[in-house]
Amino acid sequence: MTDKIEFVLFDMDNVLCDYDRGKRVAYLAELAGVSSERVHKAIWDSGFELLGDSGALDGPDYLRGFGERIGYPLSLDEWVEARRRSMKADLAMLETVGGLRESVEIAVLTNNTTLVADHIDTLFPELRPLFGSRIYTSAQFKAAKPDPQCYRLCLSELRTRPEAVLFVDDLAENVAGAREAGLLAHHHTSAAAFRQALSDYGLREMR
Asked: Fewer CB atoms near the end CB (10 Å): N or C, the chain?
């Protein structure tokens, strides 16, 4: 028997929205006049993106470094547009979240640079009406999932106990990190499976 769940903490990409990194990379490659393979190697394969996710680079330094690595003076607007094009709201999940928030508190914790939080209303306008100000990026806590410290610092910000939180993520390693930090956790695969998990935990959507 678990303690009563008071909070549901959601990952963003591939949980609340479908995230297509390939679309993002292709747009960036077109801007820079280079191959998609080069962009992917420069940003993701190199570990640079993790520097942004973990807060090792602040927003301006991350953006500057991003452009230097792909060989193009990338503007903030172009970075945001590339990110926006890669995201499509999962309407089934958002509907479930809308019903769920009537009975428990909800928040978002995503592995991303602070630029994502700063521009979330452009990137994912459906999120703010559901989550308000409780949209957190890992960079804000200077630690990225699955580091247990990332979850602990987020929960400190939310002023809640780990045993009262259900965390939802599509990556198994992030689910494991949450459990190591003392949270309950659900490995997300679909909106239907998530609704079943809510039922299993005794949570229900209000309509």
From this structure: N
Angle formed by the axes of helices 172-180 and 148-158, nearest 10°: 60
Cβ(120)–Cβ(131) under 8 Å? Answer: no
How far is residue 40 from each of residues 60, 69, 144, measured CA to CA in Å?
20, 10, 20
Cβ proximity of 183 and 9 under 8 Å? yes
Give the integer Cα–Cα distance in Å for 162 and 182.
Answer: 5
- Global pTM reads 0.95
| Domain carrying residue 110 | 7-18+88-200
For residues 155 and 165, is the Cβ–Cβ distance under 8 A? Answer: yes
Taking only the tens place, the pLDDT of each residue in 96-119 is 999 999 899 999 999 999 999 999
126 is written with which tokens? Answer: 């459906």
